[in-house]
Amino acid sequence: MKQIENKVYLTKEDLEEYYSIKQSMQAKLRSNKRIPYVRPAGSKICLYKKVDIEEWLEKWEVKPCTII
Fold this sequence. Notes:
Layout: H1 2-5, E1 9-10, H2 12-19, H3 23-31, E2 48-49, H4 50-59
Antiparallel strand pairs: 1-2
């Protein structure tokens, strides 16, 4: 886990291990353009910029509601 914390770009495996987002879910999110990712030119590898993923996750934060 420590090595992942220092990375700028995460692989599919890193994203699954660190944030518990299964690779099948990652594929669905990518195909629907719902998750930020980069694909180096001429490559089939998908990389995720850690800062972008953290910002993306903050947008999905569920806030507790108060009952009136």
